[in-house]
Design goal:
The chain contains two helices and four strands. By secondary structure, it is an alpha+beta fold. A four-stranded antiparallel β-sheet has the order 1-2-3-4. It is elongated.
Length: 92
């Protein structure tokens, strides 16, 4: 299934609006939506070339995407641990 890209398709796929807020990293207004699996997903809404409102996950456009993505948080943690490990090997 492709990710829903409009408010109507989000609602048809059992997503529900939770709240609007300002992203602390890039200071844009984002909407938080509850997913069918019970998670909360940050979304950006913008107009496409046909002036139709579409949404994209905020971590696709944010300056600090790991703030919203568990997968990216894990990847950043693994990178940090690898850097720390290589630094400690260099000190030996």
């Amino acid at each position: 299934m492709a990710f829903p890209t409009t408010r109507q398709s989000l609602e048809e796929h059992s997503y529900s609006f939770k709240e609007s807020k300002i992203c602390p990293s890039c200071e844009v207004t984002i909407e938080m939506w509850n997913t069918p699996k019970g998670n909360v997903m940050p979304l950006d809404f913008k107009l496409d070339e046909h002036q139709v409102e579409i949404c994209v996950p905020h971590f696709a456009t944010c300056k600090n995407p790991a703030m919203y993505s568990r997968r990216l948080q894990k990847k950043a943690q693994e990178k940090k641990e690898a850097e720390e490990s290589s630094e400690s090997l260099g000190d030996a």
